[in-house]
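thoughts on my protein:
***
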Amino acid sequence: MEQHLLELASRIADALERLAPPPPAPPDFVAADAFVWHPRPPRLAPVRVVARVDIALLKGIDRQLRILCDNTARFAAGLPANNAVLWGARGMGKSSLVKAAHAAANSPAGNSSIGRLALIEIHREDIASLPALLDLLRAGRRRFLVFCDDLSFEREDTDYKALKSILDGGIEGRPENVLFYATSNRRHLMPREMIENERSTAINPSEATEEKVSLSDRFGLWIGFHNCDQETFFAMVEAYADHFHLPIGREALHAEAVEWSVTRGARSGRVAWQFIQDLAGRLGVATGSGAAETRPAA
């Protein structure tokens, strides 16, 4: 009987071992210059070609570009740098600037195909898994720029508390080889009614408001983006038209750009790019809009 039980237990153990997933392979931090974080199962998916726009084509954000590129370059060189939140008007190049700053920081890397700084994108819905990602990166020898696009929090959302402690507070703290950048349409990452609701229901309203606002205080850099004027909008479309060698005069280009912006009800870098795509298509000029290296994503 004992022998039978031992054999049965052995078969059960073998079956469970076959059913159990194999342990994840350690991440290859030099597989690419950019990765996307997937928390279930935890892994870093390499991105061979990043969807980015050339830094020379980013118009109307000279000050923002200088600040973020300087901060990123210092971090890539092993010097102190700040977490940053890029906030403000839609379509004005926030996420494009982050990816361009990453490329600029790696540009002096010489002949090596792998730069000093790796860009890691984490999706908004995966923010709760950020501690697991940082634990993974802590052991890496590279420096990592963790990037969350369109970061914001809604009512009843408590993920912001975990983000606060990671950015500045926890016992372990943020790893020295990790920097966090986020883009948002909101300066404080939360809707006004969420903050006001906390104020109205709290025993101490000022403390409740401070709890919400202090999330953005964890970012050393606040970089604002604002709606562009017509002159800046013209500079954007001119830069794209020159880059793609579109056969159109300045006067006609401006006239069509104005008409396009009026129909869209806005002027921004995104609107300028969409106009150029339409114009290039009508002129029969290929822009490589499907190529990741030339497509803006802001």
About this structure: The CA atoms of residues 37 and 44 lie 5 Å apart. Residues 290-298 have pLDDT under 50 and may be disordered. Strands lie at 34-39, 42-47, 84-88, 117-121, 143-148, 178-184, 221-225. The chain has two domains: 34-225, 230-294.
